[in-house]
Specification:
Helix content is 42%, strand content 20%. By secondary structure, it is an alpha+beta fold. α2 crosses α7. The longest helix is centred in the N-terminal third of the chain and has 20 residues.
């Protein structure tokens, strides 16, 4: 975690404690990592929007028909931009909590240094049709739904892992962590690797 990020999260913890102690109004920062852009919004305890900002991403690449890839560092660039804009209106020490949302099922492949190995495979990427068919054949459609509550779908993470192993073995050897787009931004901001249960179900 960078010194700036450490400072930001230290102030975040302190502001929540101060709000509880002195009774002043807390504000909350929401960060959304979409396909076309990243957004930040600050709301107060009554749900009133105090500040908001949007930054556009570079268009996703499609090296082959049906493929969709984005550079995770472009999300991070956009995220820093929108946070910077809302912090021109709201002081960092006023923010008591941060929430993350974002495009689902994008696969960010990280090495042992938490660096992106290749462009992320997006939710709309269709290259894993073969892998999905193999999963369904080996496990069985009904059994698969019993186990993970979902059929094998091209946008999900597990078929993408199989594709990477089969088609980019050198990259596959480097993979230590796989994160969703919003969770990659969480890692960049806080140094923590985490996700939520509902999104993990969609990865299988």
């Amino acid at each position: 975690m960078t010194r700036i990020n450490q400072w930001f999260f230290l102030n975040l913890r302190q502001s929540a404690k101060s709000a509880a102690k002195y009774g002043f109004e807390m504000k909350f920062l929401g960060i959304d990592i979409g396909t076309s852009g990243s957004r930040a919004v600050v709301i107060d305890e009554r749900g009133k929007v105090v500040a908001s900002a949007t930054a556009i991403h570079e268009d996703f690449a499609s090296p082959e028909i049906g493929w969709a890839e984005q550079n995770p560092d472009d999300w991070w660039r956009a995220c820093r931009e929108v946070i910077g804009k809302v912090l021109q209106i709201v002081k960092a020490e006023e923010i008591s909590a941060i929430g993350f949302s974002g495009q689902m099922h994008g696969s960010v492949f990280l090495d042992e240094a938490d660096k992106a190995i290749r462009p992320a495979l997006l939710w709309c990427d269709q290259r894993t049709e073969k892998q999905c068919a193999e999963i369904t054949e080996k496990v069985g459609k009904e059994r698969l739904i019993e186990l993970v509550c979902n059929p094998a779908i091209t946008g999900f993470t597990f078929p993408k892992l199989l594709w990477l192993r089969e088609n980019e073995p050198e990259n596959w050897k480097k993979v230590k962590t796989v994160l969703l787009p919003k969770d990659y931004i969480r890692l960049k901001l806080s140094g923590d690797k985490a996700s939520d249960v509902d999104r993990r179900f969609g990865n299988t």
